[in-house]
Design brief:
The chain is of the alpha+beta class and 171 residues long. The chain has one domain (2-170). The chain is 42% helix and 23% strand. The protein has helices at 2-17, 26-38, 42-51, 53-74, 161-170, and strands spanning 111-120, 123-130, 135-142, 146-151, 154-160. It has a 5-stranded antiparallel sheet with strand order 1-2-3-4-5. Helix 1 (2-17) crosses helix 4 (53-74).
Length: 171
C-alpha cells in the first residue's frame, strides 16, 4: 500500500512540477472562510489560525501542486468553476499580449477527465481525456533507483527515489 501511495504521489508531484502553479488558491480560501465563519473575534480568529496552521499548510500544498496546476492548464479552477486568474484582464505593468501569438493567450489544454489505474505493482497509468476527444497516457514506472515518466510512450521525466524521499520528509 505504501509503495502504491509513493508511486502515485511521485507521479502527481512530477506532473505538478512540470506545470504552472499560479491560481486562485481555492482550498486555502475555503480554510480561511471556515476560520472567519467560526469565530467573530479577531483574537479568536488569530488563535484558530494558529491551531489550523497544519491545515493551512496542507491546503496551500494541495493548491500549489494540484488545483492551481489544473486551473492553469485547463483555464478553469476545478473547485470554484471560475476562470483561471492568469487569464483575467488587469492593468499590467508589462503589456505583452499584443506581441505574442493568440495561441499563448488562452489555456492550452481542455482536459475533461483524468483517471489513474494500477497496471502492476510497479506501474501507474493516468489516462487523460480532452474535450476534443483525444486521449493521452502518462505512465509512471518504478525502477530500482528511480521512477520513469512516459507520455504516450515517450520518456518525459525521471525522478530518483532518494529525491522523492527527501521531498516527502520536507513536506
Amino acid at each position: 500500500m505504501k509503495k502504491k501511495f509513493l508511486a502515485t504521489a511521485a507521479m502527481i508531484v512530477t506532473c505538478s512540477q512540470l506545470s504552472g502553479c499560479m491560481g486562485q488558491m481555492a482550498t486555502s480560501q475555503m480554510v480561511t472562510k471556515l476560520n472567519l465563519d467560526t469565530v467573530d473575534n479577531r483574537y479568536g480568529r488569530a488563535g484558530l489560525f494558529a491551531l489550523l496552521s497544519p491545515v493551512y499548510g496542507l491546503a496551500a500544498t494541495a493548491d500549489l501542486f494540484v488545483f492551481n496546476s489544473i486551473e492553469f492548464w485547463t483555464g478553469t479552477n476545478p473547485l470554484t468553476d471560475k476562470e483561471a486568474v492568469v487569464d483575467l484582464p488587469t492593468d499590467a505593468i508589462f503589456k505583452m499580449n499584443k506581441h505574442v501569438s493568440d495561441d499563448f493567450k488562452t489555456a492550452p489544454v481542455k482536459l475533461s477527465s483524468a483517471q489513474i489505474s494500477q497496471q502492476d505493482e510497479r506501474t501507474l497509468v493516468m489516462t487523460l481525456a480532452y474535450e476534443d476527444g483525444s486521449k493521452q497516457e502518462l505512465i509512471g514506472s518504478k525502477g530500482e533507483e528511480h521512477i520513469d515518466f512516459y507520455l504516450d510512450d515517450m520518456l518525459v521525466a525521471q525522478v530518483s527515489l532518494a529525491e522523492l524521499a527527501q521531498y516527502q520528509q520536507a513536506a
